[in-house]
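This entry is listed as follows:

___
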Amino acid sequence: MRIHRHSLATGMTFPDSNGFEVKRAVLPGDDEKYLTLQLILTNHRFQDIFTAFVEDISANIASIPVESDAVQFMNSRLRRWQLFLERNGPDGLGEESQSGFLKLAILMCTHKSTQILVTHRRI
């Protein structure tokens, strides 16, 4: 996501997770006013889930008119993903859980007009 530097709040940190990280980069040809936030998959085991949550973030950011609000939204959403992955063990989701989660993500994407709240409770 290419942003103006001023859209990034001073001291804002992005979460690192078992499956992703956020890097800040200046792309060739950009001047010092711009910064690119790169969301990078760090564990290929999470590729299907990563694809689903990148699409979710992208679709929601596109409708946010203020760039700094979009950056804040991205950070908030990434923190939720980080917590989700942490709660499912140090190695993230098992294959069965990944499959179930991916099916839920697809369902959510196909029903964009309906807000779905999912909670998880450990027994």
In short: The radius of gyration is 16 Å.
